[in-house]
Design brief:
This protein is α/β, with parallel strands linked by helices and 207 residues long. Helix content is 41%, strand content 20%. Bound molecules: guanosine-5'-monophosphate.
Length: 207
């Protein structure tokens, strides 16, 4: 990959972990002027409120598979039975001109780190599985079966957080926003970053 002066950040969290609201808030901040968000392709159905080109580019499974064959993705993964992927085109256009935020699951984060050594991986850690469950219930987008499925996947996701550069505890929106601001806008290093998500908490969440 050619040298790039901009920074690349990957943000992951279990489903319902609150990353979308936090990322929206980051983009309301004036310090985000030189940041862009990568929009992924997905074969999943649009949910209520989803906007084409803002939340995702919505593709049929066939079109997604065609793009895989044509090697148009930097990375792609299957999450909850649907395809999600970051296209080369999306990265090429945005990353050349701005710092870039990618909202990916752990598979995508690992793949991006392989390709972009300097990528900073940020994991949003829920304070408890019950908190996650309440958020999923509150957002009212999933059946109870889907919620149980998302919770068991959440444990798996959290167990992958070890290799992330920053663990951000999302117990409180403002505090998590402040932590993310330090990482994205102030460029704090992983060593200097004071994570509020302890190893003990991670252990408890994945037990
Ligand atoms: P949702 O359907 O709830 O929007 O997203 C489900 C999961 O897919 C989330 O964990 C999200 O971060 C992940 N995801 C979204 N876009 C991509 C992508 O382009 N690549 C990968 N690997 N994961 C993605």
């Amino acid at each position: 990959m050619p040298e790039n002066l901009h920074k690349l950040f990957v943000i992951s969290s279990p489903s319902g972990g609150g990353k979308t609201s936090l990322i929206n808030k980051l983009f309301e901040d004036s310090r985000s002027a030189n940041f862009e968000k990568s929009i992924s392709d997905t074969s999943r159905q649009k949910r209520q409120g989803d906007l084409e080109g803002k939340d995702y580019y919505f593709l049929s499974e066939k079109d997604f598979k065609d793009k895989i064959k044509k090697e148009e993705y930097v990375e792609y993964a299957t999450v909850f039975g649907n395809f999600y992927g970051t296209s080369k085109e999306e990265i090429k256009t945005k990353y050349n001109n701005s710092n870039l935020i990618l909202e990916l699951d752990w598979q995508g984060a690992y793949a991006v780190k392989e390709l972009f050594d300097d990528a900073k991986l940020i994991f949003l850690v829920p304070p408890s599985l019950d908190d996650l469950k309440q958020r999923l219930i509150k957002r009212n987008l999933d059946s109870s079966e889907a919620i149980e499925n998302r919770l068991s996947e959440a444990k798996k996701e959290i167990s992958k957080s070890e290799m992330y550069d920053y663990l951000v505890l999302n117990d409180d929106f403002d505090k998590a926003f402040e932590d993310l601001s330090q990482i994205l806008f102030e460029g704090i290093s992983p060593i200097d970053f004071n994570s509020r998500a302890s190893k003990d908490l991670i252990k408890r969440l994945v037990e």
